[in-house]
Structure to design on (70 residues):
């Protein structure tokens, strides 16, 4: 019966340069996605990301967007 820890939601927005030769394997899955206007991929295990920024999602007080580059 420990204390309840405050939490918030996080969205990761990842920019991937598909022309980069050193990318680990990935799969494009946009055609299977419910979000047809997004370019979705499955990234390889061990993929590394550089955090560009962390911002509060406009109109919310508990949803953060982490913008990353691969």
């Amino acid at each position: 019966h420990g204390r309840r820890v405050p939490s918030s939601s996080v969205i990761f927005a990842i920019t991937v340069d598909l022309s980069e030769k050193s990318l680990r394997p990935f799969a494009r899955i946009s055609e299977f996605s419910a979000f047809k206007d997004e370019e979705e991929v499955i990234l390889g295990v061990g993929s590394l990301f550089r955090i560009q920024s962390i911002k509060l999602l406009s109109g919310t007080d508990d949803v953060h967007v982490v913008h990353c580059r691969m």
Q: What stands out?
A: The chain is about 0% helix and 40% strand. The radius of gyration is 15 Å. The longest strand covers residues 9-15.
